[in-house]
Design brief:
Length: 248
């Protein structure tokens, strides 16, 4: 992310995030012999639902530490964008520097884009080796992201995505896209559910389906995602108004 010492800070941060997120709720398990969900869905508290025609946007700041091929990454982002769009959430992906020295090459990646902007770290095997993960996990995220936080991270263990995709004979970009959408779901408060994109353990049939179609959020999950984004935006607006009042 920023120089050697900056990278050390990143690793410490990731360690804290994974620990706080809880391995059982934030990561995808997709071992071949497993076919059931490991975690049941727990409804979140009732929230004010946004209008049906309101399509909130999230921004994902991408740090491609694993140097995933650009074309593959764009394909994965397109898959995740489609899944989120089915839930009426628009995703925008912005590429960000891997070190402070690279900052000038990424002028479109400012530090703070608000509470509906998140961070995607695509980690190398070495980086994953420094944090605690179950071997079957493909990614992790805080579950949920604090509603006032501005840079909650999704961590993706890309080499495991490639291995798993190879095992079932699908393109890794298709699986990576589903991992991204699943982890965005966790950031926005979704728990695991018995089927669909938020299933805790994707079975072989789910993985095969990903090869030519998409797993989706349920109608209730989609409404919850948008309600969460509305709430986050409202909290940010209220916070800005308080600051403006204080500055006068
Ligand atoms: Zn999960």
């Amino acid at each position: 992310m920023k120089s050697q010492s900056g990278m050390g800070e990143l690793i410490v941060r990731l360690l804290l995030v994974v620990g706080a997120a809880g391995l059982g709720t934030s990561a995808i398990a997709a071992a071949p012999q497993q076919t059931g969900s490991s975690t049941s869905s727990t409804p979140l508290p009732a929230a004010k639902l946004p209008p049906q025609d309101w399509h909130p946007q999230i921004i994902v700041r991408v740090h491609n530490y694993a140097h995933v091929d650009t074309e593959l990454l764009l394909g994965a982002e397109a898959v995740a964008t489609s899944i989120l769009r089915e839930a009426k959430v628009e995703a925008r992906w912005v590429y960000c520097p891997l070190s402070q020295e690279d900052d000038e090459r990424y002028p479109r990646c400012p530090a703070d884009w608000g509470t509906n902007a998140f961070v995607l770290n695509i980690l190398t095997p070495e980086m994953v080796g420094r944090i605690q993960t179950r071997v079957e996990n493909l990614g992790s995220a805080p579950a949920p992201c604090d509603e006032d936080a501005t840079s909650c991270p999704i961590n993706v263990f890309y080499f495991r995505v490639v291995q798993r995709a190879d095992q079932v004979g699908i393109h890794p970009g298709r699986l990576l896209g589903h991992v991204l959408a699943h982890e965005v779901g966790h950031l926005l408060g979704e728990n695991h559910s018995p089927k669909g994109i938020m299933r805790g353990t994707w079975g072989r049939d789910d993985l095969k389906l990903m090869g030519f179609s998409i797993l989706e959020f349920s109608t209730d999950q989609a409404a919850q995602l948008r309600a969460t984004l509305l709430r986050r935006a409202a909290r940010q607006e209220a916070s800005r108004n308080v600051k403006l009042s204080a500055d006068r």
